[in-house]
Structure formats: C-alpha cells, structure tokens
Design a protein that fits this description.
transmembrane transporter activity; ATP hydrolysis activity; Rossmann fold; 7 helices; alpha/beta; 4-stranded antiparallel β-sheet; ATP binding; binds adenosine-5'-diphosphate; Macrolide ABC transporter ATP-binding protein; 10 strands; nucleotide-binding; binds magnesium ion
C-alpha cells in the first residue's frame, strides 16, 4: 500500500499538514489538535512528550488510522487517508501499523498465541500460518515458553511483551506505542524499550512512542514536544537513517 514519491524514494511514514481534531462534548467543542505539521520518515525512532491533555493520544490515534482528522491532510505511507473509505482505512492500518498501549489491551482469558495471532485473522491468513507466525513473534520477545499462558496469568512486563508480539506479527512498517512503559516497573520498562530499540535497529521499523519519562524519551532519536494541541518543539538527538535524511524533519 506504500507509494513511492515522485523522487523515487520511499514515501514518509507519516506526513501531516495543518492537522486538527476537535471533539464535540455535549455541544462544547474541544480542540485537541489545532494544526499540526509533521513529517516522520520510515525507520525513525521518535518520542512524543507533553503534559497530560496536550493531544498526544489524539495524535497517535490519527497517525494509527484509528480515527480521522477534523481538518488538514494526513498521509500514511504516502496515502492520503481522506481518499480511503472506512474499510480501506482499516486495511491500511492492519497492513502498516502495529499498536502497543499502556494498558496492553489483550484478551485476558485468551492464550498468548491466540492474542498475538488475532491481527492475522482480519487479514484472512490461514490458521496454521497464523499460529506459526504468532509463535515466531512470541519467541522474538522472549516468550516462546509462554504460548499457552493467558494474560491474566502473566506479569505486566510479560503482558506488554505479548502486546509487542501482537504488534509485530503482521510485519508493520511502524509501531505506535502510547506510554508503553507507563504501567511497568523500571526493569520491565527497560526490557520493553530494549525490544523496541532492537526492532528499530534490526528491522528498520519506525517507532513512535508517547512517554512521560525523560530517560525513555532520551533513548529515542528525536523528541517532539506537544503542548495545547500544537507541536512546541521538535529536536533530533541522533541523525535520521541515511535513506531518509533530506528535509528539515517536519
Ligand atoms: N474521545 C474524546 N472525547 C472528548 N474529548 C476528548 C476525547 N479524547 C480526548 N479528548 C480531549 O482532548 C484533549 C487531548 O486529549 P489527549 O489526546 O488524550 O491528551 P494526552 O494523551 O496528551 O493526555 C483533552 O482535552 C481531552 O480531554
Ligand atoms: Mg494520552
């Protein structure tokens, strides 16, 4: 689904121009995003920071095609989401993006293997292949010995690793993680970050994560600070991948 740009390079993972999202709360409009311009290239590792209520989750939902902008342009892998109906938007999401949430969002009484295989069900992958790929994804996060365990029998750190395996099982181009270490102790948070770092370095998967923790943000290569629905600051602490180094990072 990714399109090539006219220069022939890979399209950016995300391009937002004047992106807004307003929520209607009993007749009162809340402007969660007020005009965001942003470009994130393939293979980047980005942290999004900002006070509670500043619009971080709203932005992640838009980037992840879980929601649509109120106005502005959003291109995901070069595709303008406004040109897609809901079915095609869901397909783009399923093929391009893996999600990791603070509260894991796993089916508590369903074995880890089936939780991880779930995104492949929506893709119409045959059962035996689903199971093989889910097993491989669980092995990749160090949970090859926990295939039949249910999330309700697992520690928080293990549950988040199951969620990462589920995000990876479809070979996404991007992993979006909304406070992935927010409910974890230091050691488990560290393991989750090591997995995301390895994924970015070894497979070139772009990682965009929201965090409140400065030491987590410092491990990303770029820090985007959001305030009152706008990007307040966008800094790079490490150079972007070679294939995606042109431009000013916006
Ligand atoms: N589904 C919703 N309905 C109404 N208002 C919402 C909804 N989601 C978020 N908001 C509001 O939008 C603003 C930004 O929220 P959010 O993106 O969740 O911020 P953050 O993730 O930075 O804490 C807040 O004022 C919040 O109350
Ligand atoms: Mg949030």
């Amino acid at each position: 689904m990714t399109r090539e740009t006219h220069e022939g390079g890979a399209a950016p993972a995300f391009e937002a121009i004047g992106l807004t999202r307003s929520y209607d709360l009993e007749g009162v409009s809340v402007d969660a995003l007020r005009g965001v311009d942003l470009r994130i290239d393939q293979g980047e590792f980005v942290a999004i920071l900002g006070p509670s209520g500043s619009g971080k989750s709203t932005l992640m939902h838009l980037l992840g095609c879980l929601d649509r902008p109120t106005s502005g342009v959003l291109r995901v892998g070069g595709v303008d989401v406004a040109t897609l109906d809901d079915t095609r938007l869901a397909e783009l999401r399923n093929e391009t993006i893996g999600f990791v949430f603070q509260s894991f969002h796993l089916l508590a009484r369903t074995p880890a293997l089936d939780n991880v295989a779930l995104p492949l069900v929506y893709r119409g992958v045959a059962r035996s292949e689903r199971r093989a790929r889910a097993q491989k994804a669980l092995e990749a996060v160090g949970l090859g010995h926990r295939l039949g365990h249910r999330p309700s029998q697992m520690s928080g750190g293990e549950q988040q690793r199951v969620a990462i395996a589920r995000a990876l099982v479809g070979d996404p181009k991007v992993v979006l993680a909304d406070e992935p270490t927010g409910n974890l102790d230091t050691r488990n948070g560290d393991e989750v970050m090591a997995l995301l770092e390895g994924l970015n370095a070894d497979s070139g998967v772009a990682v965009v994560l929201v965090t409140h923790e400065p030491d987590v943000a410092a491990r990303a290569h770029r820090q985007i600070h959001v305030r009152d629905g706008l990007i307040e600051r966008d800094t790079r602490t490490r150079t972007a991948p070679a294939a995606a180094s042109e431009g000013d990072g916006k």
